[in-house]
Amino acid sequence: MKKIIFIFCFILSVSFLQAQESYTINGETLELKTEVDGQLDLLWNIIDGKYRYFVRTEDNTITELKNTKTDRKFQEEYKTLLNELTNNSTSTKHLNLTLFSLKEYIDTYNISADSNYETNVSRSKFQFRIGVFGGMTNSPFIKNPNNEKTPLFGAELEILEAERISRHAIFMQLKHVLEQDDLKYSTTEISLGYRFRVINKETFSLYANMKFATLNFSNGTVVTDLDGTISTEERSETSFDVPFIFGIGADINVSKNSFITLAYNELFALFLDNQGNFSTDFSIGYKFKL
Q: What are 216-219's contacts with CB under 8 Å, separation 24+?
C-alpha cells in the first residue's frame, strides 16, 4: 500500500505548465496562449469567462477574430479577416469560431504556405483523458453495521468532444475496494458512466456522474447466528447491474494537459438500496489528456 501511495504522489508532482505571454492589443493587456505557431499563428485564452481568439502574422501584427451579432444575425468578421490573410487559399465556408476548428484551419493553411512547417495538430474529433485515483469508502450499498471505511484505488478513461471543452462525456472506470480486518469485503468494479459538467471552465469544472452499468467481482465473509451458533462463510460473487449510481466530481487544471480530480461518489442509486450508511466515498486523483 505504501508503494501505491508513493507512486501516486510521484505522479501528482509531475506537470508541465503551458506557457502564456502578455500582449498589448488595442490598449488592452492580455495573457494569451499560442496554439499554432507558423506563418500564421493562433493565439487564444478564456478571458472573463469568454473565449477570445487572435491571429498573428509574420510581421507580428495581432488581430482579434470576431463574430458580432447585428439584427439577430452573426456578421462572421473572422471569416472575412482569414480570407484576406490567406488570400482566399483555404475555404472558410465550414469554419466555426471554436478552438478546434480554428486550429485545424490555420494549421491547414500553414502546411500549404510553408513546406518546412511541421504540424502538431491532431485531427481526432474526440479527446481522451486517462487518470488514476485513490481514496476511502464505506461501501454504502452493502451491509456495514459499524460504518467502517476502507481504501479504494482505480483508473479511468474519459472520452469527450475535442472541438470544444464539452459539457458531456462518457467514462469507463476500474475500481478496487480493499478488504480490512473489521470489514471482510472487497470488490473489483468495472463500470460505464455518463458525466455532465455543470460548471465548465478551462481551469475548473464541476460535474455530476452517473454510472449506468457495473460489473462487480466481490469477495466477502458472511456471518450467521443460528440459535446461538455463529458460523462464517467465505463467498465470491460476480454481479452485473444497471444501478444508475450518482455522484459529483471536479477537475482542477494544473497544466496544459493535466488535472487534479476530486470525487464524492455513491451518493444514491436508483436501483440499489442504501444499507443504512450515508455515503463517505471520497477520492482524489490525477488525470491527463492523451
A: 216/187, 216/188, 216/189, 216/190, 216/240, 216/241, 217/187, 217/188, 217/189, 218/185, 218/186, 218/187, 218/188, 219/179, 219/185, 219/186, 219/187
Give pLDDT, residue 119: 84
Q: Output the pLDDT for position 230.
A: 64
Domains of the chain: 20-113 (no CATH), 125-289 (2.40.160.20)
- The residue written with cell numbers 478551462 in the block is 202
For position 8, what pLDDT does the model report? 41
pTM across the whole model: 0.59
| Whether pLDDT at 7 is above 50 | no
Most distant pair of Cα atoms in the chain: their distance: 91
Per-residue confidence (pLDDT) for residue 71, from 0 to 100:
86
Highest mean pLDDT among 13-17, 210-214, 233-237: 210-214
Q: Is 61 exposed, middle or buried (0-12, 13-18, 19+ CB in 10 A)?
A: exposed
The tally of CA atoms less than 13 A away on the side-chain side of residue 269 is 22
* 11 burial level (CB within 10 Å; 0-12, 13-18, 19+): middle
Contact 161, 125 (CB under 8 A): yes
